[in-house]
Design goal:
Layout: E1 2-6, E2 9-11, E3 16-18, E4 20-24, E5 27-32, E6 41-44, E7 49-52, E8 54-59, E9 64-65, E10 68-69, H1 74-83, E11 86-94, H2 101-112, E12 119-125, H3 131-142, E13 147-151, H4 162-175, E14 178-182, H5 186-198, H6 205-210, H7 213-230, E15 234-236, H8 242-253, E16 258-262, H9 264-268, H10 295-303, E17 309-310, H11 343-350, H12 359-373, E18 390-400, E19 419-429, E20 432-436, E21 439-440
Parallel strand pairs: 1-6, 2-7, 8-11, 11-12, 12-13, 13-14, 14-15, 15-16, 16-17
Antiparallel strand pairs: 1-4, 2-3, 4-5, 7-18, 9-10, 18-19, 19-20, 20-21
Bound molecules: N-(aminocarbonyl)-beta-alanine (URP) and zinc ion (ZN) (2 copies).
Length: about 450
């Protein structure tokens, strides 16, 4: 099947070109002005942008958390992602405590295989650092699972102590993997959370006030310094606050290979959303939403490359029946927000459409940097020879975000009623049209597991 995309503006992270795009089978075969070649179908992209399919490097489909499971399956979550212009996700497989990495990876492979509608890779959550687990990390890197998430948060569940984190960082210098850190001081946070809960401060709002941004900054600096001594790069996930950003910036100014992502919720939502009684549970995630004055600092961090990536941390729980597990005690509210469908549009709306960043920088943070940093050289650009993961994007379209119309399997939206500018018209995954306007043309099982390369390309 050959598809010719005519009259569009090709938007890459490093260039904007008026060019036609020929897709042959699963790859981009030709780029050129006024291409007139035989094709089985033509798409008119006049007044539209042709961008590389977006890549979300932080999702949690079916994650067990707080006695329940993140609601989206690999089928529903990846279909929703595609409607929003995302054609690749990297999800987190979880090592069971006391078990092996292999057990966790096998379990997540089983969830995804035959179900994912778009291509997917895995990071591995390391919840129990042992000698055998460190050796397993080497094997996984060879198998294309090249990135590992550890936590300074969630004591008793995922938290690793400094020694364990340091050992994992050292191992990554030997095997070329990359350590991703959830950086919050979970032990101190739990003290404050317990004090709040026992003095009657049980509303979701106190989830936010229990988790000081200073405790995020402290843990961010700590893991950066552990990485410095280990001689390893480090990537901070879901960075939420000015305080933590300052630590990343300081390290980068010193020349350290410290990297970080933020998420749309930290750019658009705030601590105020956690108020309003139990409705606030819809906005409970960790790190928590911060006072609104952090948002502009994060936008600036993205523009200045102190933050390299925007991912979603998509981890949806229904308000009814799931978030409600924490009625009367915010500590029992499952942590996480839905977002995989809305990232591209939100970032366009608050980024280029609002004049905060160039369209090219937008492509960089939603697609090109994720591809480069997470070992996916076949993705992240509109270029000859690469996978034909393409989005015909209308920068002028307007739509109102709502749980009534979204495709994520969750009963609310954090952005209910927000009108955004920009939207994906047509989405191709390896040459196949999977979204055409409101129509779903993809199939469960279309997505392939991606063996990722080491992240070395972006390190010095
Ligand atoms: O609240 C969050 N972020 N839930 C998902 C798990 C994690 O820490 O990423
Ligand atoms: Zn996390
Ligand atoms: Zn997460």
């Amino acid at each position: 099947m050959r598809t010719l995309i005519k009259n569009g503006t090709v938007l890459n992270a490093d260039a904007t070109t008026r060019a036609d795009v020929l897709v042959d089978g699963e790859t981009i075969a030709m780029l050129g002005t006024d291409l007139e070649v035989a094709a089985d179908r033509r798409i008119d992209a006049a007044d539209k942008w042709v961008i590389p399919g977006a890549i979300d490097v932080h999702t949690h489909m079916e994650l067990p958390f707080g006695g329940t499971f993140a609601k989206d399956t690999f089928e529903t979550g990846t279909r929703a992602a595609a409607f929003g212009g995302t054609t690749t996700i990297i999800d987190f497989a979880v090592q069971p405590r006391g078990g092996s990495l292999r057990q966790g990876l096998d379990a997540w492979m089983e969830k995804a295989e035959g179900n994912a509608c778009i291509d997917y890779g895995f990071h591995m959550i390391v919840s129990d650092v042992r000698d055998d687990v460190l050796s397993e990390m080497d094997t996984l890197v060879e198998e294309g699972v090249t990135t590992f998430k550890l936590f300074t948060a969630y004591p008793g569940v995922f938290l690793s102590d400094d020694g364990a984190i340091f050992r994992a960082l050292q191992q990554s210098t030997r095997n070329g993997g990359l350590i991703m850190m959830h950086a919050e001081n979970g032990l101190a946070i739990d003290v404050v959370a317990n004090q709040n809960a026992t003095t009657g401060n049980t509303d979701p709002y106190f989830h936010g006030t229990s988790r000081s941004p200073i405790m995020e900054a402290e843990a961010t600096n700590r893991v950066i310094r552990l990485a410095e001594v280990a001689g390893a790069p480090v990537y901070i996930v879901h960075l939420s606050s000015r305080h933590a950003l300052n630590e990343v910036r300081r390290a980068r100014d010193e020349g350290l290979p410290a990297f970080a992502e933020t998420c749309p919720q930290y750019l658009f939502l705030s601590l105020d959303d956690l108020g309003n009684g139990f409705e606030g549970s819809k906005f409970v995630c960790s790190p928590p939403l911060r006072p609104a004055d952090h948002q502009e600092d994060l936008w600036l961090g993205l523009v200045k490359d102190d933050l390299q990536v925007v991912s979603t941390d998509h981890c949806p729980f229904d308000f009814h029946g799931q978030k409600e597990l924490g009625r009367g005690d915010f500590r029992k509210i499952p942590n996480g927000l839905p977002g995989v469908e809305d990232r591209v549009d939100l970032l366009h709306h608050g980024g280029p459409a609002a004049g905060r960043m160039t369209p090219n920088r937008w492509v960089e943070v939603i697609s090109a940097a994720p591809a480069r940093m997470f070992g996916l050289p076949q993705k992240g650009a509109v270029a000859v020879g690469l996978d034909a993961d393409l989005v015909i994007y209308d920068p002028n379209r307007r739509r109102t975000i709502s749980a009534k119309t979204h495709h994520m399997d969750v009963d609310y939206s954090c952005y209910e009623g927000l009108e955004v500018t920009g939207g994906a018209d047509v989405v191709l995954s390896r040459g196949k049209i999977i979204v055409d306007g409101d129509e779903w043309l993809g199939e469960r099982g279309d997505g392939r597991f991606l063996r990722r390369q080491r992240s070395g390309a972006f390190l010095r």
